[in-house]
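One thing: can you check what follows?
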Amino acid sequence: MKDITWEEPFCGEGASCFRIGTDDEGNAYIAVAGQEDRYVTDSREALRNLVRDIKAGKADHLL
């Protein structure tokens, strides 16, 4: 198993809680809190861009 350092969970209004993690190799991870063994991974830059796009409303059509 990877050595992932997880941040505290982020919870939206009435939504699932998510956690973001990183490792020493420059990878970033996102998972549903409590299900950290099932994560999506990419580079830190890719995750940073995903979060920026979500904050900018570019994923609102998915909700």
Summary: Residues 14 and 28 are 25 Å apart (CA to CA). The mean pLDDT is 87.
